[in-house]
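@here heads up, posting the sequence + SMILES for the flavin-adenine dinucleotide run so it's all in one place. Ping me if the SMILES looks off, I pulled it from an old spreadsheet.
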Amino acid sequence: MPARELDAYAAEAPIFDATAFRLPKPDAALIEGVRCFGRRVLAPRAEQHDRDATFPLQNFRDMHAEGLLAICVPREAGGAGASFASYCLAAAELGRYCGATALSWNMHVCSTLWTGALADDLKMSTAERTEHNARRHLHYARIVGEGALYSQPFSEGGAAAAGAAPFGTEAKPVDGGFLVNGKKIFASLSGAADYYGVLCTERMQGDEARRRNTLYLALPAKAKGVNVVGDWDPLGMRATVSRTLLIKDVFVPEEEMLMPRGVYFRAATCWPHMFLTLSPTYMGLAQAAYDFTIAYLRGELPGTPPVKRRMFPTKQIAVAEMRVMLEQTKTLWFQAISEARANPSKEQVLRAYAAQFTVMENANALASKAIRTCGGQAMLKNLALERIYRDSRCGSLMLPWTAEICLDRLGRDSLYEAGEQDD
Ligand SMILES: Cc1cc2nc3c(=O)[nH]c(=O)nc-3n(C[C@H](O)[C@H](O)[C@H](O)COP(=O)(O)OP(=O)(O)OC[C@H]3O[C@@H](n4cnc5c(N)ncnc54)[C@H](O)[C@@H]3O)c2cc1C
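bot reply: prediction finished. Complex structure tokens:
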């Protein structure tokens, strides 16, 4: 977004008002700080990175200086110790100003949230807990001290990222660590991350590949045998630079395990809301489409002539419909992120699917409606709306909880109890 456009957003309020949504004071302060950072630092840089499909490395350097790379690192390890819900609310504010940065940030933050607050909530033996607590500090120290960037390349182009099959990327146990081989597609932060948080299947020669043997390993980006290949020229989320990773005979020392053996599988089974973390970016984009429409119709969007269009009844009805959709989206999503926990009830899991589906589909529906309502001049590339539209289109495609998979599970699990079958 050009710098001149920023003023239009100066008066914006947080997406979730701290009083109305009963946010604890420290959380509200953290989220407000992130919002101001997004508006001041990310928004002016977003347009160029989107055009050029380049990774916004300076954004991440600045986020390190602000302590944002360590937002979910526990306090005792030097981080901000944000909870799942606080992180989601903060990430929505970043998504409002630069979708691609917020989505890439999510890949990084999950390496700390999943190994931090989420892992603390999981059952582990004393030996597992001791091993995990010792190892995770290695990663936290790199992030807090050096601003190291972690990414999360899980997707392989097969059924594994949807949770329907073991990962094809495999780790063979060897002396002192693992030998890893495989391929990951859509690896956001490719070429920029210092560590790739890879999911792979631990497998000895002759063993069957099993999902419960999933390992979560930090592959040093500079390790011999790690290569980033292919081009990157997508419709939206262009600044995530999600190219392909080839992993050939890469030795990964044991201490680079992000979770002990078996714990990732336990997390995916007992803490399903962990997959809701892709949605905050799109909650922010939904709000951004609405904000743009209000500023534009009021004739207050810098960079556009001060022409008011708000007096037409058709515009007022369109804005009313957008407002209804935005409020529905916010309310359901807020409820879902608030009830994230270990071993949620079936109702809570179904609500999480419904929230993910709603945010991902409504973000793009709102952006689409914003373009139709504001008109042709509003979709020119010097304004943010067309980028919001393209970025928001990507939300429904994000595995493992794509819009289709959410519908699939909602329908099936609403009609069947566990173990039930038809004759
Ligand atoms: C901008 C962007 C950034 C991304 N960044 C990352 C990243 O950092 N890390 C990462 O791991 N991935 C990332 N992804 C990848 C993303 O999560 C998907 O893996 C990717 O879009 C897969 O697309 P596909 O066409 O190969 O999916 P396919 O596997 O071909 O599936 C196509 C569709 O079929 C449906 N489907 C698939 N499997 C099932 C099933 N078992 N049951 C029912 N329906 C199913 C889904 O709705 C899916 O959308 C990113 C994607 C985008 C667009």
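MO: The pocket of flavin-adenine dinucleotide is lined by residues 107, 152-155, 157, 159, 161-162, 164, 186-188, 237, 240, 242, 394, 397-399, 402, 404-405, 408 (CB under 6 Å).
MO: One more: The chain has a mean pLDDT of 96.
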